[in-house]
Design brief:
The structure holds two protein chains of two kinds. Chain A is of the alpha+beta class. Helices cover 40% and strands 19% of the residues of chain A. In chain A, strand 7 and strand 8 form a beta hairpin. Helices cover 41% and strands 20% of the residues of chain B. In chain B, helix 7 links the parallel strand 6 and strand 7. In chain B, helix 13 packs across helix 19. Classes of the chains: A alpha+beta, B alpha/beta.
């Protein structure tokens, strides 16, 4: 039967544009699906031209092959927790005068209130300044080396400020050998990562340095290694999405650590403090999964011709992405966006800081906002309905490359999490990766005031696309 | 006056939805003016011209949605905003639960492996890109979008031709394929007559005439308005003809178009010569001789085309109601008009309907003007002001730039109707009402108040105003032909049973020189 014969027998329609055309076809008993068309690249002519150049048969072939490789590396990575250690000891290149921060590069002058608060707090914690105002002078003096966590193999939650004495997770990729690091959750709302920096914050950081860190370090020496991806997969089957909702994964992690904590040679009272500390907030393992994601995505970074996004992060002022095909620390940035969601009592939209933190690495891997269908309970925190949660997970399939068969979502028939955000698809569809995240107060010292949904600015992806085209044609 | 602007970044709605939202927003209490549009250069220009430019509007991009509201005070503006937001929410809720929707054609095609037709109605500058993708995936294309370049049209049609696919459009609004009416089409009985049409409303007219005469349609293939031009060369007209010639269910083929370019006409006639099935050719205003020489059946009017097709298809001519012209009616109406009332004013939604009416008038009169006149000396210098006999295609670009088509929004025609009714030289005003898929849900109802008003005004001025209405549709359309016609008749409108008859009646009503 020829194509025309088949058409004459019956229509099966894809409708691109005016919706009532589709409705009328369905009314007549025939099949039609709707494409919610939007101008590619937001109608930006330069960007559309770039998409067209990448769409030639030969270039597409190269890109598809490279993306296959990148996505394979993300999916096959097996990040293992292999220990804890102080940043100065375990993070390559770390110095006493280095302060790492979340997001793409930013100068002290441009940092927002929360990040400045965290920086000054960290400088006091490190003993580099005696009080916060001295710390501010020091920060502005040029003597402190500021750098993104990402450029040192680390990730940092919220302000992400990481300093020499902080205890870090050490996460090694069993398949590809690369290592990722992140510091520990401070558990409460009034904490350094949210920009708080008073005596209580410093005191807690001291305890973490002197008690929590050493106990965890010793525990891992007997534990050897913990398969984080295994715990992650279980957690998604238990209602977590491992960005904002970490109830199950924290329980699984502490369960794995507990026997080894017990066996360490520390006073029972201190071990008890550790258990109480972990129990005080479900968020304890939040950073752990961030490190898992960074570990997997770093393994996929630097594959020529690949349009896969390997980093999404924010510093409260700018949102930055990196793509696999443009190796090293080539950042594509745009303005950080507001986070929209329910706020704790007494706070208003105007009190919010903009999107901040390296935690968007979880969405980059396919967790968090991408896995909301696994965590219906999160909708109460970020606003919206269960149908919204499911829809986010489904929509993200439009801008990603594959499903990760190792990490699945029961509600979606055990569909694997959406893996491999493709810059081309983001630009073509206008669908931006959805991120669910906490809202920090815009001023230093206050902390978390809510949680909600946000998106990267489209321009990050537009810029990355143009750079990818230039690289392909070079 | 206060103005409030809200920008929704990276939010896209198609033009039809935006029109609908704007219209509803303007009806909100307290709102003087509301504009809901995409942040394109064109729309910004419009806002600038009417004094509604603001820095936020200036900064907005192509992919951002603009909401501009003016009211008596800032408070009124603010209070209108939640109501405007509610309009967007209503739209979202109208979607059926569990319906799968896609963000791209690629996404849809990955999931819909059985799809065989893409219908494309995105803005012209993006349409060719989408069509190319669809064709490359092996789908036929129906492209409603216009403002697509000739080069793109040619390239797309060549790709389609080489792949054995149909590329219907650009500027194609009507098709009936596999028993389904697509875009703007009527519910027509299935049968054994196939149609290939380069004219949207012309195709619709022939299809409903066939239905009225007792025949039915196998397929109605649209080619788009520019297919028969020199550059495009009638690729789809010919491929469509061949497809119907090869279709075992089609016994008779009808071609509908305005007269093609000479070179194209030759190509098409050569195809007809080679075609084993009878082909009825309705090239409005074209040459009979060439068609007959090629072995085709020439039809001077859309009515004649349908009638010939139905007879060729095997229906007994004796049993067909040919809707003969009501000659006594012509005399009756002519008698009601004053000597001054000499002119016809046609206010049409359908382009081809306008064209046919104009041709019929031109057979009797020389002073026939239009906004779509072929001869520049009969082109109206100002399309908003009629002169002598005037036939206005209200769907033409000049009237639809930044406005919905008159088939969807009757506002412009209603205003023009009232204007024409004031002119004491006007004897008859001809109005078309198009039913079927894609049409307004009550084209007659929404125009009736204006019709009644016109008749009253004329009556107060001491003259009879003849309004001649033609409803294009069938009794299977919703609303039905019967319902809509009855409403017109009840308001004193004279009913024509076809476009052709409307043309004959209209010219008869004002023709004091001869019989119809």
């Amino acid at each position: 039967m020829s194509q025309i014969d088949r058409l004459f027998k019956g229509v099966d329609v894809v409708n691109v544009g005016i919706e009532f055309f589709k409705d009328d076809i369905v009314k007549q008993g025939a099949r039609a699906v709707q494409v919610d068309w939007r101008p590619p690249g937001g109608g930006n002519v330069e960007v559309i031209a770039a998409l067209d150049r990448l769409a030639s048969a030969s270039v597409t072939e190269r890109i598809e092959a490279a993306n296959q490789q990148a996505v394979e590396r993300i999916i096959n990575s097996r990040p293992m927790l292999v220990g804890f250690g102080r940043a100065i000891d375990v993070v390559p290149g770390m110095t006493r005068e280095t302060i790492l921060h979340a997001g793409p590069p930013i100068t002290w002058q441009r940092m927002n209130g929360a990040m400045k608060g965290a920086v000054t707090g960290a400088l006091v914690f490190e003993g580099l300044a005696t009080d916060l105002s001295e710390a501010a002078q020091l920060a502005a003096s040029g003597e402190i080396h500021f750098a993104p966590c990402h450029e040192f193999g680390c990730v940092g939650s919220m302000a992400g400020v990481t300093s020499a004495s902080m205890t870090m997770h050490v996460v090694r990729n069993k398949i590809y050998g690369n290592v990722a690091y992140t510091n520990l959750s401070e558990q409460m709302a009034k904490i350094l990562r949210m920009g708080a920096n008073d005596a209580s914050v410093i005191e807690r950081l001291n305890w973490m340095r002197d008690v929590l860190g050493p106990i965890l370090t010793a525990a891992m020496q007997t534990a050897g290694e913990i398969d984080l991806r295994l715990l992650l997969s279980q957690a998604l089957h238990m209602g977590d999405e491992c960005h904002n909702r970490n109830n199950a994964c924290t329980a699984l992690l502490i369960q794995a650590l507990t026997p080894h904590i017990l066996e360490t040679d520390f006073p029972t009272a201190q071990k008890r403090q550790v258990f109480d500390f972990v129990a005080s907030s479900d968020y304890f393992s939040g950073p752990t999964w961030m490190a898992l994601c960074k570990c997997a995505l770093d393994a996929a970074h630097g594959i020529p011709d690949s349009t896969i996004v390997t980093t999404m992060c924010r510093n409260g002022v700018e949102f930055g992405i990196r793509v696999s095909g443009l190796p090293g620390n080539t950042w594509f940035t745009g303005p950080a966006q507001p986070v929209i969601g329910p706020m704790f009592a007494g706070y208003k939209r105007e009190d919010s800081g903009l999107d901040i933190g390296d935690s968007a690495i979880t969405e980059t891997y396919g967790l968090g906002g991408f896995a909301m269908a696994a965590a219906p309970a999160i909708v109460a925190l970020v606003g919206g309905t269960i149908d919204d949660a499911i829809a986010f997970s489904v929509n993200m399939a439009e801008i990603t490359t594959a499903q990760n068969p190792n990490v699945t979502i029961p509600l979606l028939n055990f569909r694997g999490i959406a893996s491999g955000i493709d810059v081309r698809k983001v630009v073509q569809t206008g669908i931006l990766p959805v991120i669910s995240t906490a809202i920090a107060h815009k001023d230093a010292g206050i902390g978390m005031i809510g949680a909600g949904i946000t998106y990267p600015p489209a321009e990050c992806f537009d810029k990355a696309l143009l750079a990818l085209v230039a690289a392909t044609e070079a | 006056m206060a103005i409030k602007v809200v920008i929704k970044p990276n939010t896209y709605f198609d033009s039809v939805t935006l029109m609908s939202l704007s219209t509803k927003a303007n009806q909100i209490d307290g709102v003087d003016q509301a504009v809901i549009a995409m942040g394109t250069a064109m729309n910004k220009g419009v806002l600038r011209n009417v004094g509604l430019m603001t820095p936020e509007v200036e900064a907005a991009g192509n992919g951002d949605l603009l909401i501009v509201v003016t009211a008596a005070s800032a408070e009124r503006c603010e209070s209108a905003l939640p109501e405007i937001e509610a309009l967007f929410n209503q739209r979202n809720q109208a979607r059926s639960a569990g319906e799968t929707r896609y963000a791209t054609l690629d996404g849809a095609l990955r999931q819909s492996s059985e799809a065989n037709l893409a219908i494309i109605s995105v803005p012209g500058e993006y349409a060719a890109r989408e069509a190319r993708k669809a064709l490359e995936h092996g789908l036929h294309v129906l492209m409603f979008s216009d403002n697509v370049s000739v080069d793109d049209e040619l390239q797309l049609k060549q790709i389609a031709h080489d792949k054995g696919l149909l590329m219907m459009g650009p500027d194609c609004g009507t098709a009936i394929l596999g028993r389904v009416g697509l875009c703007f089409a009527n519910a027509v009985r299935p049968g054994n007559i196939g149609i290939v049409g380069a004219s949207g409303t012309g195709s619709q007219e022939v299809s409903v005439r066939i239905h009225d005469f007792g025949g039915g349609i196998t397929q109605l293939i649209g080619t788009g308005g520019r297919d028969m031009s020199e550059r495009v060369g009638g690729i789809m007209m010919i491929d469509g003809l061949r497809a119907l010639a090869a279709d075992p269910a089609t016994a008779v083929i009808v071609l509908v178009s305005k007269p093609p370019a000479k070179s194209v006409e030759e190509k098409v006639l050569a195809e007809i010569k080679a075609c084993a099935k009878p082909v009825v050719v309705c090239f409005l205003g074209g040459s009979e001789e060439a068609v007959t020489r090629a072995g085709g059946h020439f039809a001077r009017t859309t009515k004649e085309a349908a009638l010939r097709a139905v007879v060729l298809a095997g229906h007994d001519e004796q049993h067909i109601n040919k809707r003969a012209l009501n000659l006594p009616l012509i005399d009756e109406v002519r008698a009601k008009l004053t000597p001054q009332q000499q002119h016809i004013r046609g206010l049409l939604c359908g382009g081809t309907l306008c064209y046919e009416l104009m041709l019929l008038a031109q057979q009797r009169f020389t002073n026939v003007y239009s906004n779509i006149a072929k001869d520049p000396s009969y082109q109206l210098p100002d399309v908003n002001i009629s002169r002598e006999h005037s036939f206005i295609d209200l769907g033409d670009d000049e009237f639809t730039r930044g406005r919905p088509h008159p088939m969807i929004d009757p506002t412009l025609r209603i205003a023009r109707l009232l204007q024409e009714a004031e002119d004491p030289s006007v004897g008859v005003i001809v109005l078309d009402f198009i039913l079927g898929f894609g049409a307004h849900e009550d084209p007659v109802g929404v125009t009736l108040p204006a019709i009644r008003e016109c008749k009253q005004r004329a009556a107060s001025a001491g003259r009879h105003l003849e309004i001649l209405g033609y409803v294009l549709g069938t009794d299977a359309d919703a609303p039905s032909l019967h319902e809509q016609t009855a409403m017109l008749a009840a308001a004193g409108v004279t009913i024509a049973s076809s476009c052709t008859n409307a043309g004959l009646l209209a010219r008869g009503f004002v023709d004091r020189g001869a019989s119809a």
